[in-house]
Design brief:
Layout: E1 5-9, E2 12-18, H1 22-27, E3 43-48, E4 54-63, E5 66-72, H2 76-87, E6 93-96, E7 101-107, H3 111-114, E8 124-126, E9 131-134, E10 143-148, H4 149-157, H5 166-176, H6 213-221, E11 227-234, E12 244-247, E13 250-259, E14 262-268, H7 269-278, E15 282-284, E16 287-291
Antiparallel strand pairs: 1-7, 2-5, 2-6, 3-4, 4-5, 7-10, 8-9, 9-10, 11-14, 11-16, 12-13, 12-15, 13-14, 15-16
Length: 299
């Protein structure tokens, strides 16, 4: 069972985009359809290299006259710099507002109801102070809130649920097989379809062009996905991120983040099938890992 409560993320930050061209500017760059983002609907998306490799992922929400991008705080300056390179003559301001907003997640039973939101991915509501939305990737991931920093503690306390340690959120996302930015996706190497972005509502192939679209579409329509980021379980020592997974002498993939016997691993689907067929273990060092197929994934 997932503990019910809220987690405050000190490692998440927010960029605010405003101006007459903010929406069309973002629409031409990112993997999801910005036209769908409204005050009652948030989204999840990514910015890729022109070669279709992962750079940044983020949540996108509309807060009155601005669009908010919530992403990894440690990489926020680099995202801002990249967006400014694309801005050219577009009438858009891009501001780091991380010190003004606190980012929190609410997980567990009925937390979506506490925020008066429907159980629909991305359903969003502007609050008297800040905003809240159902996680656009999976309803099971709960909800997220962007709150004014001075009032955030009071607002969260009024929900009547306890504050949880970050490990509670980590356990939930790893059991569900949901990646967490550059911790699980190698920058300039990972591809979206290997990482489950299509099923997690992070890419829209009907929206028109975006940076890196050509490779992403080719992988989809030519069925070129040979590896997948999958949840795994294990007993024994946790393999470090980047540890090679082997099937006998054959390389089968790499580990990503882990906690309490659960983790993520980028695995070659052919080797996963052979391991099952041969009844042979997949090993990361001396630790046997068991890959799982999330019910949301189309493998």
């Amino acid at each position: 069972m997932t503990a019910t409560g809220y987690v405050v993320f000190g490692d998440r930050g927010v960029l605010a985009l405003r101006g007459a061209d903010a929406r069309p500017f973002l629409q031409e760059l990112i993997t999801n359809d910005v036209a769908r983002v409204r005050e009652d609907q948030a989204a999840y998306g990514a910015l890729l290299t022109p070669q279709g490799k992962f750079l940044f992922d983020f949540f996108i929400a509309q807060d009155r006259d601005r669009l908010l991008l919530e992403t990894e705080r440690s990489r926020l300056g680099e995202l801002q710099r990249r967006l400014l390179l694309y801005r050219l003559r577009s009438k858009v301001e891009i501001e780091n507002v991380s010190d003004d907003l606190t980012v929190a997640a609410l997980i567990g039973q009925d937390v979506v109801g506490l925020l008066d939101l429907p159980e629909q991915t991305g359903a969003c509501r502007v609050l008297d102070q800040g905003l809240a939305f159902v996680d656009p990737r999976l309803v099971q991931m709960g909800a997220r809130a962007l709150l004014p920093a001075p009032q955030a503690e009071t607002i969260l306390a009024q929900l009547g649920v306890p504050e949880l340690e970050g490990a509670a959120y980590e356990r939930l996302r790893l059991r569900l097989g949901v990646p967490d930015g550059s911790r699980d996706l190698v920058v300039e190497k990972a591809t979206l379809l290997e990482s489950g972005f299509e099923e997690l509502n992070g890419v829209d192939f009907a929206k028109g062009c975006f940076v890196g679209q050509e490779l992403t579409a080719r992988m989809k329509y030519r069925a070129l996905v040979r590896k997948r980021l999958l949840p795994v379980t294990f007993n024994g020592p946790a393999p470090p991120s980047g540890a090679i997974v082997r099937l006998g002498e054959r390389e089968a993939g790499e580990m990503r983040t882990t906690i309490d016997g659960h983790g993520l691993a980028l695995l070659r689907l052919e080797q996963v099938a052979k391991a099952k067929e041969e009844g042979a273990p997949l090993l990361a060092g001396e630790t046997e890992i068991v890959p799982l197929a999330p019910d949301w994934a189309r493998l």
